[in-house]
């Protein structure tokens, strides 16, 4: 609408400078950014739109592209690409008065080998045809889902199916199975199956998600990366989507920051290779354990990789029930005379 000379005079630039800019080819940096944006889009699409800058940066690094994380974040903002965020957690556990197992974990979710500690829980999946319930068993060593099952009811058979799948695929010895105090896990049938398989049941306190934080973290990931982004017309559609998420993406491909941005299967495979080279090698996830809570390990805990089970310092005046004693240690912030571990660990966030 206006002559170029007039526009340049108003903007305070020279006409020759404008023409030189309009004919100038793109810089090498701009061309590299354009290629990198396309790769970022491809990785973001392959992750089903869930990856943010840290995981996309890890994927690029694994593929041989050495770029800065801040550059990846800048290009993602420029291209309008973003990861997903989590919704608010909703508590669904209600105490039913059943007898509970001792807490053998006490928020120490570290494990120096597979099949040492499994964490389990149940969540619901909304569909247009009603709720579908999902029970999982997760190996604390690699964050791998080793057993899972789905049903339209919350009967005990749901958690039994998940446990049986984990037992069939992993064949553990003396594994600790940690859960909340839901009626499915406190049922006679579940306790009988644990005794038959040599599984040691463990349960946290009631109404406290931190006592089963690792399982809650997986459900938060599932809700964030799948359930919040899709609506299921039928329960069959939801079953297929959850199957694809767990077996097709989460276990074999999804990168975890707590595992050095490896997937659970890759992490276990790398650990097996290191064990084959050096049988004394031990590998621990970098984001959990008493040291992250500001706690000290009990001096009785052996430091060798053959330690029998995860332990944590007992509260003063409270009996130690982690060895299988019948009496249960006092629960709650006002029981016992020792420091309150729940308030000390309140700010922990277990990364996925």
Give the CATH topology of the domain at 117-275.
Nucleotidyltransferase, domain 5
- CATH architectural grouping of the domain at 117-275: 2-Layer Sandwich
Record the strand order, biggest sheet: 3-2-1-4-5
Number of DSSP strand runs: 5
Strand content: 5-15%
Structural class: alpha/beta
Secondary-structure element order, N to C: HHHHHEEEHEHEHHHHH
Supply the key terms:
about 350 residues; alpha/beta; 5-stranded mixed sheet; 12 helices
What report would you give on this structure?
A hairpin with a 6-residue loop joins strand 1 (117-125) and strand 2 (132-139). The chain has helices spanning 4-11, 15-23, 28-46, 53-62, 69-79, 156-170, 188-197, 213-225, 235-250, 264-277, 290-293, 341-344, and strands spanning 117-125, 132-139, 144-151, 176-179, 200-203. It contains twelve helices and five strands. The protein is α/β, with parallel strands linked by helices. Helix 6 (156-170) runs parallel beside helix 7. Among the domains are: 4-79, no CATH class; 117-275, Ribonuclease H-like superfamily/Ribonuclease H (Nucleotidyltransferase, domain 5, 2-Layer Sandwich). The protein has a five-stranded mixed beta sheet with strand order 3-2-1-4-5, with helices on both faces. Mean pLDDT is 79; it is low at 284-352.
